[in-house]
Design brief:
This protein is an alpha/beta fold. It is about 55% helix and about 15% strand. The mean pLDDT is about 95.
């Protein structure tokens, strides 16, 4: 049976992360893995896309940044309200705090030293602005820095350093056992 997985993401930095880090993991269980950016689309278009996922019996994950929500539950409820009735709560992954925190979580101690950045034991609260301040001057852009992190990304370090990334890995492991 041909298995499809779509990862619905907010934007380009999320796409870069999914393609470089998550896609290889997802391809162990799925024949097709692709991203779809939802943040700039009207809610009706997102709902239509979710309906098409259901019609083709494709699996999906819906990534959303924690942003300024008071808690993960509130953020999930906000997303559910925005894309009702098609969004499934069990497929929502709330990234704490923003996707940059997942990038930074995957930088193990050795690579922190190589980049010349401090070791951050827990990245749950890291924002885009904090991430950008850590970027070594040898990189011409944040995107270059992110690409280098993806090339050296350590899954084990990311699981230890970021609870929401660890939650995603647990979810993917459980789903792979179901398949």
């Amino acid at each position: 049976m041909y298995r499809r997985m779509w990862v619905l993401i907010e934007g380009g930095k999320d796409s870069r992360f999914v393609r470089g880090v998550l896609r290889p993991i997802l391809q162990r269980a799925y024949d097709f893995v692709e991203t779809w950016e939802y943040a700039e689309r009207p809610p009706e278009k997102v709902v239509d896309f979710l309906k098409s996922m259901s019609a083709m019996k494709a699996d999906y994950l819906f990534l959303g940044d924690f942003d300024t929500s008071p808690c993960v539950t509130e953020r999930k409820e906000h997303l559910l309200r925005s894309y009702k009735p098609m969004l499934d709560a069990g497929r929502i992954i709330v990234v704490r705090a923003e996707i940059e925190s997942w990038y930074l979580a995957g930088v193990d101690d050795k690579n922190c030293q190589g980049f010349g950045i401090p070791v951050i034991p827990h990245t749950d609260g890291v924002t885009k602005e904090q991430f950008e301040k850590l970027m070594p001057t040898k990189f011409k852009s944040v995107v270059d820095f992110m690409d280098e992190i993806v090339n050296r990304f350590c899954i084990d370090a990311a699981i230890r350093k970021n609870r929401s990334f660890g939650y995603l890995m647990d979810l993917l492991e459980a789903r792979s056992k179901e398949a």
